[in-house]
Amino acid sequence: MSSRPVLPVRPPGGRPLRRPRLLASDLDGTLLPPDGVFPDDLVRAVAAVRAAGVTFVVSTGRMFQSARKALTGLGLTDGPIICYQGAMVADLGTGERTYECPLEPAVALEVVDYAHERDLHINAFIDDRLYSDREDDWLRRYASFGEVEATVVPDLCRLLTHRLTSKLLILAEPERVERLRPEMQERWKKELYITRSLPHHIEVNRAGATKSAALETMRAQLGVPDDRTVACGDSLNDLDMLRWAALGVAMEEAPGEVWAAADLVVPRSELAALLFDLAAAPDGPAGDEERAAAGG
Question: What would be the CATH architecture of the domain defined by 16-101+210-293?
């Protein structure tokens, strides 16, 4: 028996399955496996989706320069990309930023003070550059992971007093992340969107700077009906995007909380097959082609 994923006949709400017009996917852990190499079949599947006229957008917590570099391996060198968890939308080809939602300076300073008081490593992302006031293993690991240069400054608070930051990122041991994340969410529930991507990351964005908010803006601009959207993800920072989409697809390797937010769960190894199926799906309501062929 084939392990190829089977698309549901109808997505949530009873709407018949059609080829999507907007398909969003997380990068790390979804499109990009842990070994850091895009599978050949996935590269072909993304090309097939785009050739079918679907707007394909990567939605990631990464910096623009980091994501742009990684996506050349997927054959993506143009079109929109959502970065910094939804705080920026840019064009892969030109680098032009079409949307930004940076942190309010006063709140950003509060978060930096919070990290300093607890001896936590914290990164700030300003004008698509990585800054920190601590040169340690956390910074070196993050810079290596993102293939970016890091700038160490003597006083991060002073820098943030004069410059807007797209996102703050606290790095710590996973057990500490799990303890601090709900505390931070409660403390800044009105001002910030705080989530987790990788187990040792606490992502800090302005309230409303989410993947789903950026996608909804894009959907409206493109004139895509809300039932022609698909989103794929594998982590807690993908929850809102999976719930937003007409068809939310979670990776089987994801935590149970991500499964619960999705309409379909597939192994990461089967994502390419799913994308091929979506590219080949009818552009009209499911069943229309069959009825037309039968004279109905």
Answer: 3-Layer(aba) Sandwich (3.40)
End-to-end CA distance of the chain: 34
All CATH 3.30.1240.10 domain ranges in the chain, comma separated: 105-206
**Per CATH, the architecture of 105-206 is what?**
2-Layer Sandwich (3.30)
Range(s) of the chain covered by CATH 3.40.50.1000: 16-101+210-293
Q: Could you read off the pLDDT tens digit of each residue along the chain, which spans 296 residues?
A: 334 454 554 444 444 468 999 999 999 999 999 999 999 999 999 999 999 999 999 999 999 999 999 999 999 999 999 999 999 999 999 999 999 999 999 999 999 999 999 999 999 999 999 999 999 999 999 999 999 999 999 999 999 999 999 999 999 999 999 999 999 999 999 999 999 999 999 999 999 999 999 999 999 999 999 999 999 999 999 999 999 999 999 999 999 999 999 999 999 999 999 999 999 999 875 444 443 333 33
Model-level pTM? 0.90
